[in-house]
Each structure stands twice: as structure tokens, then as C-alpha cells.
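Long-time lurker. I teach an intro course on protein structure, and each term I like to show students one example going from raw sequence to a predicted 3D structure in C-alpha cell notation. This year I'd like something fresh instead of my usual example. Would anyone be willing to generate the C-alpha cells for the chain below so I can use it in lecture? Attribution to the forum is fine with me.
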Amino acid sequence: MPKYLLLKHYRGGPEAHRPFAPMDQWAPEDVEAHFAFLGHVRALLEKNGELVDVQALTSAQTWVRYGGPDAAPVTTDGSLPETSDLVAGWYLVDVESRERALEIAAYISSEPGPGGTPLHEWIDVREVMSDAHSDD
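-- Reply from a regular --
Happy to contribute to a lecture. Here you go:
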């Protein structure tokens, strides 16, 4: 079965369906409902045997590159990417088809935002290369 990485970005993707404030500006009950929904998605995927991994990430990041054969890694906190380029978290799913991965991504996109209204957030769907189907 193919695996897909469903990436959530900090306000990333094509133009927003409906603009919404950053989560740190939401009412506490809206944040609670949002995370309860994400917990529900996790439980549903576990029950279906489709969940491989799920993680949320902070916005703090460090860039690292090879420094040379006898050098320490080179690191920097900047230049900072656009907020939309930051990965907020992911679901790694093992599903029967690409269509199922898209169905799960669409369901995640319905997560509640301020006032309980669905966010219609874009989810970046990527097939794991080692599982990608070949035409050869």
C-alpha cells in the first residue's frame, strides 16, 4: 500500500479559502475544539489501521548544512522563510490509494477554526517516494 505525507503548513498553500487569524489569537475554546478534532482524526486513522505517524511542530527552526570534512556543521536561524513555508505538522498514512489519501486530507481540512467554522485549510499531499508507483 502506498504511504502519503499530509503536510499542514502555517497558513500555507494557495490562496486561503477563508482568511482566519493565527491560532494564538483564537478564543481558548476554539483552540480546544481544534485540537480535539485533530485528536479525533488520529484516533480514526489508528482505528482504520492507516496511521503511521502524526506530529505537530513548533515554528522555531534552525538551518543546518555540511561545513566540510574537518568542520562543524554550519547553522543559522535566518534568513527566515515566509510563515507559509513553515511546516506545522504532518500525518503519515498508509492507505489503499491516492484517492483515500486525498479523502483524509480533505477531512483534516474541515478542522474547526474560530467560532467552530471549518478552516478549509490547504493540506499538502505527497506520496512517499519509496512507495511511489513506477510505470516501468
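Some talking points for your students: Helices lie at 28-47, 98-109. The chain has a mean pLDDT of 87.
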